[in-house]
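Give me structure tokens for this 87-residue protein.
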Amino acid sequence: MLVYISGKITNNENYKNDFLKAEQWLKLNDYTPINPVKVCEMLPNLAYNKYMAIDYKLIDLCDAIFMLDGWQKSKGACAELSYAKSL
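Here you go.
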């Protein structure tokens, strides 16, 4: 099962570690995680709306979404969850 990881990135100094820990936990529990941090690192310096467009496409591929603690404080994570629910 493909699982998209969503959480607060902006103003979160530990976001890379937060996403990596979630990725590792999902793998240990027999899920196939999609870590958007790793995907978007391959395309540095894009505008926010471009990153969100990529994230929505990744969500389209997934069967579930995994929300990190504090996601409610992220405009992007809230939008991703809303998008995933719409599918």
